[in-house]
Amino acid sequence: MRLAKVLGTIGRVCITAGALILLFVGYQLWGTGLREAQAQDKLESEFEERLRSWKVRSPVLKLNAALSELPRWTATGGETWPVAGTVNCRESLDDAQAAFEAAERGELSVGFTEIYSQTASDPTGAPPGGHVISVFGQYAPADAGREAWDAGLREAAADQVFGLIERFAPGFRDTVLARPLQGPADLERGDPNLVGGDVGGGSYALDQTIFRPLPALVPYATPIRGLWLGSSSAFPGGAVHGVPGWAPASYALAARRLGR
Ligand SMILES: Cc1cc2nc3c(=O)[nH]c(=O)nc-3n(C[C@H](O)[C@H](O)[C@H](O)COP(=O)(O)OP(=O)(O)OC[C@H]3O[C@@H](n4cnc5c(N)ncnc54)[C@H](O)[C@@H]3O)c2cc1C
Q1: Which of 91, 160, 161, 233 is least surrounded by CB atoms within 10 angstroms?
Q2: Among 143, 238, 133, which Cα is nearest to 183's?
Q3: Among candidate residues 152, 174, 197, the one where a domain is terminated
Q4: d(Cα 240, Cα 246) in Å, to the nearest integer?
Q5: Which atom belonging to ligand 1 lies closest to the Cα atom of 114?
Q6: Which residues line ligand 1 (CB under 6 A)?
Q7: 158 located within any domain
Q8: Are residues 170 and 245 in the same domain?
Q9: What's the structural domain count of the chain?
Q10: What is the pLDDT of residues 164-223, one digit of tens each?
Q11: Atom of ligand 1 lying closest to residue 237 CA
Q12: Are residues 107 and 221 in the same domain?
């Protein structure tokens, strides 16, 4: 009789403890879900706010040209071989700085060009004897829209680019057969990823470089579960190293392994 009573008591204690544990686990799951939902909501509002204030501004232009021959550089005794690498043309650093400041005032001011020639290494991409070069130039007025470019800015910019190259490779202008130029607005039209023509996916002001796109332990997470942000707009930013693609992809794979 006494044994039955003890067993009954143990049973009741076990059932009560089991119920309590169940309640506790249920509460934890509910609480965790709530916290996650709150975190998700917080991320949503932070994310929206950050995207609204994201700074994109580009003073960059791009020029492609077809040439009858490659530029002959004074610095190398009129040789064409330097274009097989990358050639930078600019006057002094002060001049480059002045060009930047002029562009900040809204003026077109090309003070720096970076020149590549694909056909210097592989001539098969051009008609026999011909060449192409592409030029990355700075600085264009960042806020000029397509209308301004259509109204003559493109031609003026191409003239400035060629004027700069001509100083280092006399006779260059006479070799130009065609010269399509893209300003920031044209770059955006050609690739919707280049918002504002910004080749880096957004300004590299300190706050947007460290916290890219926003201050978070995992900066690639978005308010939509399972959707991750890659691209040059994500940490550590643009250029051709691939990290802002690799890192969110790694997080996405890890999250999938964890069933999240
Ligand atoms: C003229 C120029 C010169 C540069 N020079 C240098 C340099 O010298 N050194 C350097 O390190 N970096 C340079 N960069 C920057 C570098 O190219 C970028 O930072 C880098 O390519 C960004 O990679 P991304 O994957 O974020 O975007 P992207 O390379 O722009 O790739 C985005 C892709 O998404 C596609 N896309 C966009 N929207 C959609 C859509 N809705 N649907 C489907 N597809 C879409 C686009 O067509 C594109 O293929 C330069 C960029 C430009 C434009």
Answers
A1: 91
A2: 143
A3: 197
A4: 12
A5: 8
A6: 62, 136, 191-193, 199-201, 231-232, 238-240, 245
A7: yes
A8: no
A9: 2
A10: 999 999 999 999 999 999 999 999 999 988 998 999 999 999 999 999 998 888 899 998
A11: 19
A12: no
